[in-house]
Design goal:
single chain; 52 residues; mainly alpha; 2 helices; elongated
Protein backbone atom coordinates (compact mmCIF):
# COMPACT_ATOMS: atom_id res chain seq x y z
CA UNK A 1 0.00 0.00 0.00
CA UNK A 2 2.86 2.42 0.75
CA UNK A 3 4.25 1.99 -2.76
CA UNK A 4 0.85 2.79 -4.27
CA UNK A 5 0.60 5.92 -2.13
CA UNK A 6 4.11 6.98 -3.18
CA UNK A 7 3.21 6.58 -6.86
CA UNK A 8 -0.03 8.50 -6.35
CA UNK A 9 1.73 11.37 -4.54
CA UNK A 10 4.28 11.52 -7.34
CA UNK A 11 1.42 11.80 -9.84
CA UNK A 12 -0.17 14.56 -7.76
CA UNK A 13 3.10 16.53 -7.59
CA UNK A 14 3.41 16.35 -11.38
CA UNK A 15 -0.24 17.34 -11.82
CA UNK A 16 0.20 20.30 -9.47
CA UNK A 17 3.20 21.54 -11.44
CA UNK A 18 1.34 21.09 -14.73
CA UNK A 19 -1.60 23.09 -13.36
CA UNK A 20 0.70 25.88 -12.15
CA UNK A 21 2.32 25.99 -15.60
CA UNK A 22 -1.11 26.07 -17.25
CA UNK A 23 -2.16 28.97 -15.03
CA UNK A 24 0.88 30.97 -16.13
CA UNK A 25 0.16 30.25 -19.80
CA UNK A 26 -3.42 31.39 -19.33
CA UNK A 27 -2.25 34.59 -17.61
CA UNK A 28 -0.08 35.23 -20.67
CA UNK A 29 -3.20 34.68 -22.81
CA UNK A 30 -1.44 32.02 -24.91
CA UNK A 31 -4.63 30.07 -25.48
CA UNK A 32 -3.23 27.83 -28.19
CA UNK A 33 -0.48 26.60 -25.86
CA UNK A 34 -2.98 26.26 -23.01
CA UNK A 35 -5.24 24.10 -25.17
CA UNK A 36 -2.31 21.83 -26.04
CA UNK A 37 -1.41 21.53 -22.36
CA UNK A 38 -4.98 20.62 -21.45
CA UNK A 39 -5.08 18.04 -24.25
CA UNK A 40 -1.88 16.49 -22.88
CA UNK A 41 -3.31 16.37 -19.36
CA UNK A 42 -6.46 14.69 -20.67
CA UNK A 43 -4.45 12.15 -22.69
CA UNK A 44 -2.16 11.35 -19.76
CA UNK A 45 -5.12 10.92 -17.43
CA UNK A 46 -6.96 8.70 -19.91
CA UNK A 47 -3.87 6.50 -20.34
CA UNK A 48 -3.50 6.25 -16.56
CA UNK A 49 -7.10 5.12 -16.20
CA UNK A 50 -6.76 2.55 -18.98
CA UNK A 51 -3.55 1.12 -17.47
CA UNK A 52 -5.42 0.12 -14.29
Amino acid sequence: MDEDMSVFKSYLRRLLQDLKDLKEVLKAKDYEKAEKMVDRLIDDTQKGIEDN
